[in-house]
Hints:
This protein has 6 helices and no strands. By secondary structure, the chain is mainly α. Helix 1 (about 5-30) runs antiparallel to helix 2 (about 35-60), helix 1 runs parallel beside helix 4 and helix 4 (about 70-95) packs antiparallel against helix 5 (about 100-120).
Amino acid sequence: MSEAFSRGKAVIWAISLGILTAFTAGSLVTVQTARQGMVITGLWLVFSSAVLYVLVVENWDQWAREQPLVRIVVYFAPLFFGTVVLDATLSLIVGWQGLLTTVLDTLVAGLVFAGAIWLSFYRGADLVREYVVDKLDAEW
């Protein structure tokens, strides 16, 4: 089941996943005011949508093979889970330290975003699946 490529579909996918990324990362980064939070979220939206657009276009054949819900889950599940786990760990270790916490939160969001990209666009999810199937001796 492969969809035919079109720029419109790529733009919709990039912006949709960019919105998920922006709201997830934007809620992660600790800021002092609501305005700063809106700016951070807006920057994440622009940055992630641009990166995701390039990745969706470059990997369209791989991307279009999967069901749409599978695409969203493979991208968003590690993004959300990684953000929650790493940010909670960071909060326990550092606490609220002003600019330091904001910078570390931004780094964590960037690392989690990179991990979600690897899983979604660079066959990371396939490698994880193969490893788990092999270790559990399961039939796939």
